[in-house]
DNA sequence: GTAATAGTGTCTGTGAGACATTATGGC
DNA sequence: GCCATAATGTCTCACAGACACTATTAC
């Protein structure tokens, strides 16, 4: 570590400063891409083609670059590893326990992404496969021993945090729209909540809540019916981001 | 980057793997320690004794160590740089824009800490001074040009995020107790909300809300009065962490 | 017509907001 | 007695929850 001389200017200090003067570690960006598939909350995973954890499933991600913001790194990885277009991304948290990566101390900045269901993407480089798994398949509540698939690194914890963040944010934000392809019906928006929370919601009360929140959704016409039943009104997401008071989970 | 051979085992891979095989950057941990002082929300800052930003005010923090979790690094920095005891810490977010540190690309994991007011701590090594500043002094809403003090790095943004997180979490958690020295009165707990939100709350309704939330506070006796007025009942924090439904900000 | 889905009307209970009142202390 | 603060009582309004009902389509 450089010891600053009392009369040194900041420019002089920086000219003599080297990045090797402080400890250094690797930084990765991992993405928890959530969507609704088959009335279930699902997360995009890739099967690792290389060590470590070859053959295990992991969140898409990669090393952060020094010339990018972390958000830019996240969006680059998203574009590289998946053809998935998402409607919302936000930082979830940073995971830096020693031993989380057998290659050494690697800190991972996890990002949360929401998007409508758009099928399984093509696997990118270094990935043997890429597909969405429902969170029931991952057995997040249990110890993981009953799970159908094995997860790499501490990605089970990251996914658990991502799912809990998503469930909580549905309560007090309008982010459910990010899970819907535009345009969407109130019933489709309700399906988002029911899939994420795993509980049925009251149809009439849900509709009133959404429509009484200014800027939650904007009407854009009426759907053609596909089968019996009254045709549903169509909406797109509005400018509002928060719901006040929140829409609380039943129970 | 190592290219894995198809028949390589994970142990063989790790034996040949070097941390120099991937890009590397420095990771720091910064702390936004909030408290209530003089009926105002305040944040602990240190005046930097060395470059860069010598003489500017900054959040306490330092480099993360490879043998610690990020949370352990945060608590170590808290103990080193301040004698402050805090009642709650949580990760706030990670800031990694290129150019945020003139020494090079340094990623900072910011932590949020809450504690009761306990006076200004002694400055640690590398700090010329340490004291709490009210968030009004920092002029977070403005552009910073009117502020009485200059902040180092992107710490204005980190503090802005910390304050907004704290204000929001008071709504749906019982974290206000973390700002109070035990035991405390309902009025002192209300002072936390009024200081953080900058708005008066209705005395009777606030009391009912707190006491009707199971596990928010636990009665521990009655205070001696200091002056005229009925002596107040005393409480300590209860086991509850969340409030349902939340206590919403007026307006 | 029936079945199926979307949307509306209305009652009720809970709880926040506001105001008045009582309780308990110092002086 | 007066003043100051803490705690309680009570009314009202908004809204979530529940249920019944109407509307519009396919068949």
Architecture per CATH nomenclature, i.e. the level-2 architecture of the largest domain in chain A: Alpha-Beta Complex
Output the CATH class name of the largest domain in chain A: Alpha Beta
What low-confidence regions of chain A span 5 or more consecutive residues with pLDDT below 50?
Answer: none
Mean of all residue-level pLDDT scores of chain A:
89
**Range of strand content of chain A:** 15-25%
Got a strand count of chain A?
9
Biggest interchain interface, per-side counts: A-B, 46 and 46 residues
Q: What number of structural domains do the residues of chain A give?
A: 2
Question: What are the salient characteristics of this protein?
Answer:
homodimer; 251 residues; alpha+beta; Nucleoside Triphosphate Pyrophosphohydrolase; two-stranded antiparallel ribbon; 9 strands; globular; DNA-binding
Please specify the SSE layout and strand pairing.
Two copies of one chain form a homodimer.
Chain A: H1 10-16, E1 26-37, E2 40-48, E3 57-58, E4 61-63, H2 70-81, E5 88-95, E6 106-114, E7 127-134, H3 135-138, H4 155-172, H5 186-197, H6 203-212, E8 217-222, E9 233-237
Chain A binds a DNA duplex (27 and 27 nucleotides) through helix 6.
Structure explained in plain terms:
- 2 copies of one chain form a homodimer.
- The first copy, chain A, is built from 6 helices and 9 strands.
- The model of chain A has no long low-confidence stretch (mean pLDDT 89).
- Chain A is an alpha+beta fold.
- In chain A, the strands form 2 sheets. In chain A, strands 1, 2, 3, 4, 5, 6 and 7 form a 7-stranded mixed β-sheet that branches. The first copy, chain A, has a two-stranded antiparallel ribbon with strand order 8-9.
- Chain A has 2 domains: 23-170, Alpha-Beta Complex (Nucleoside Triphosphate Pyrophosphohydrolase), CATH 3.90.79; 173-237, Winged helix-like DNA-binding domain superfamily/Winged helix DNA-binding domain (Arc Repressor Mutant, subunit A), CATH 1.10.10.
- Chains A and B meet through helix 1, strand 5 and strand 6 of A and helix 1, strand 5 and strand 6 of B.
- Chain A binds a DNA duplex (27 and 27 nucleotides) through helix 6.
């Amino acid at each position: 570590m450089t010891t600053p001389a009392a009369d040194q200017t900041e420019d002089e200090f920086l000219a003599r400063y080297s990045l090797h003067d402080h400890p250094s570690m690797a930084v990765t960006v991992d993405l928890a891409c959530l969507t609704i598939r088959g009335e279930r909350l699902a997360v995009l995973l890739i099967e690792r083609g290389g060590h470590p954890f070859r053959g295990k499933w992991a969140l898409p991600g990669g090393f952060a670059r020094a010339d990018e913001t972390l958000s830019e790194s996240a969006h680059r990885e998203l574009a590289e590893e998946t053809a998935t277009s998402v409607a919302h991304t936000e930082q979830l948290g940073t995971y830096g326990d020693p031993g989380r990566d057998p290659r050494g101390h690697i800190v991972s900045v996890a990002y949360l992404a929401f998007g409508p269901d758009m099928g399984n993407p093509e696997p990118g480089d270094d990935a043997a496969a890429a597909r969405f798994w429902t969170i029931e398949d991952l057995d997040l509540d249990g110890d993981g021993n009953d799970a159908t698939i094995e997860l790499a690194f501490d990605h089970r914890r990251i996914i658990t945090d991502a799912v809990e963040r998503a469930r909580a944010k549905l309560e007090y934000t309008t982010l459910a729209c990010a899970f819907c392809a535009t345009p969407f019906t109130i019933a489709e928006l309700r399906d988002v909540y029911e899939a994420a929370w795993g509980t049925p919601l009251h149809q009439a009360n849900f509709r009133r809540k959404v429509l009484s929140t200014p800027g939650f959704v904007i009407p854009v016409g009426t759907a053609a019916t596909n089968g019996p039943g009254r045709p549903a009104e169509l909406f797109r997401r509005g400018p509002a981001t928060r719901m006040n008071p929140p829409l609380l989970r039943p129970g």
